[in-house]
Amino acid sequence: MTLINLFLIALIVVFIVDISGAVDSLKSGIKWVLTKKQMSGSDYRLKPLDCSLCMTFWSCLIYLFVIGEFTLPYITVACLLAAFSDIIKNYILLVGDILIKLNQLIYKLIDKA
């Protein structure tokens, strides 16, 4: 179950950091507050918050520590999931593209009927 939870944590982190745009909104808000409403934008790095590799690694390590499973094999899995964060992002986007294509095919079939 721990392996599944680590994978799910990686999926959630990659979605939030790379796909949702939440981190860019946060960075823009921070810049807006720090410059006293003079500037906004997300054109700077805010590690580890804007790095899916970093966030996946640290989130998994925190989870392992909290549940008491801080062992070398699980830490290795956390490292691998962090290393594959770009691949996870690409697969999330691929699944989305496949579902869009499937939706288009269904509409074409409905129009022909």
Folded structure, characterized:
The chain contains five helices and no strands. The chain has 113 residues and is mostly helical. It has one domain. The radius of gyration is 19 Å and the shape is flat. The relative contact order is 0.15.
Keywords:
113 residues; mainly alpha; flat
Brief overview, please?
The chain has 5 helices and no strands. The chain is mainly alpha-helical and 113 residues long.
Order of helices and strands: HHHHH
User: Spans of 5+ residues with little confidence (pLDDT < 50)?
Assistant: none
Mean pLDDT: 92
Inertia-based shape: flat
Number of structural domains: 1
The overall strand count is: 0
**Largest sheet: number of strands, sense, barrel closure:** none
What proportion of the residues is helical, as a percent range?
over 70%
Radius of gyration using CA atoms only? 19 Å
Structural class, from helix and strand content? mainly alpha
Report how far the terminal alpha carbons are from each other.
46 Å
How many DSSP H or I helices?
5
Quaternary structure type: single chain
Strand content: under 5%
